[in-house]
Amino acid sequence: MAMTLETPALQRSDAIEPADGARAPRRAPRWRGPLLGLLLPLTIALGWELLVHFGYSNGRLVPPPSKVFATIAELAKSGELSRHIVATVGRVASGFGLGVLAGTVLGAVSGYWGLARQLLDPTVQALRAIPSIAWVPLFILWLGIFETSKVALIAVGVFFPVYLGVMGAIRSVDRKIVEVGRAFRLSGPAMIRRILLPAVLPAYVVALRVGLGLGWMFVVAAEFMGASEGLGFLLIDGQQLGKPAQIVAAIVIFALLGKTTDWLIEIASAPLLRWQDAFGRHEGEA
Fold first, then answer.
1. How far apart are CA 272 and CA 252, in angstroms?
2. E strand or H helix at 124
3. Tens digits of per-residue pLDDT, 237-286?
4. Where are the alpha helices (DSSP H) in 79-184?
5. Hey, is 186 helix, strand or coil?
6. CA 152, 153, 158: angle at the middle one, nearest 5?
7. 209 and 262 in contact (C-beta within 8 Å)?
């Protein structure tokens, strides 16, 4: 009797369609996000180009996009652009690697071990308050004006957000999840691999992206230290020679390189965060 009563009920429940609000969201096309991201800068560039074209501005101090792109094309044709980009990218890559390594190790130790946090964190927080430009004369005195001092300055800029991100993520892990791992008698390495790493990874990716952004900011200060090549050198050269188009061109290239490297981190981390069912992952869905 129970079976005869239960089967029609199951059939009726299967036949009921979900309400409109309960339907699974339909994903937007992949091209929609990048296209929307380009909309604002392209609109601003087109608007400024039209203002200069119709004579509302002479475009001398802030050149129009056509002149900026002509300057980029000229630098690329002469081979200077590739030389400066390679120098800057190499410095950022070296400084980013060193900063991430030091920040990850010290952040993990401070977050996992209370005694280490009490010893290390006050000093790190005090050093974090020092302005970036204050490190420049000290690094020049210690390491000279060559590549070592530039890479060290970039590494300092990358270190602090990575350190804070890792330490804060470990300390914010839900205690109940850790207790579940202990209830299943997980060993120390298994606890780290199965509990801590998945919980820390989203915040760690954010810390990497913030650190990379600061790395691109610090490379400009680093290349002010007697550099003869690099995008920072293009900025100084454009200022000294009165070439605003060259300055804006270097800024545009910085923006493109920064966005590209940030996008690479996002793409590389996407498979590791596929398990997330957060609200932000559904943005852009129609």
1. 31
2. helix 114-128
3. 888 888 899 999 999 999 999 999 999 999 998 887 777 666 555 554 44
4. 80-112, 114-128, 135-143, 147-171, 175-183
5. coil
6. 95
7. yes
User: What is this structure's pTM?
Assistant: 0.80
Question: Cβ(238)–Cβ(247) under 8 Å?
Answer: yes
Write down the residue that tokens 């002010």 correspond to: 224
Residue keyed to tokens 């339909």: 26
Residue where the block lists tokens 């009797």: 1
Tell me which DSSP letter residue 130 carries: S
- Closest alpha carbon to 111 in 102, 99, 120: 120
Q: Which two tokens stand for residue 153?
A: 């300055």
Triad 131, 134, 137: Cα angle to 5°: 160
Cβ-based neighbour number of residue 136 at 10 Å: 17
Owner of token pair 């454009």: 238
Both structure tokens of 75: 């630098």
pLDDT tens string 91-124: 999 999 999 999 999 999 998 888 889 999 999 9
